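Work Package 4 report. The design task specified in the project plan requires that, given a folded chain encoded as structure tokens, an amino acid be chosen for each position. We show below one input record used in the internal validation round.
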């Protein structure tokens, strides 16, 4: 299934505990931000996918947010 919906992904670094799950699961989207010591997401809008929704759902602190671009 192809989904053409673009979304913006952000990480609430205040609540992130740097478990690394998002970076391990989707390194093309998430990365380690050395300035905060937490996870971060690429700044450009990305395609909404089942994989992205799964990664959001496994975040133990619910700090990943998907919004309209």
């Amino acid at each position: 299934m192809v989904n053409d919906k673009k979304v913006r992904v952000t990480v609430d670094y205040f609540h992130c505990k740097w478990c690394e799950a998002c970076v391990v699961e989707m390194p093309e989207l998430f990365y380690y931000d050395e300035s905060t010591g937490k996870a971060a997401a690429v700044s450009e809008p990305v395609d909404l996918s089942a994989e992205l929704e799964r990664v959001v759902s496994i975040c133990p602190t619910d700090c990943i947010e998907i919004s309209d671009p």
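The radius of gyration is 11 Å. Validation will be extended to a larger panel in the next phase.
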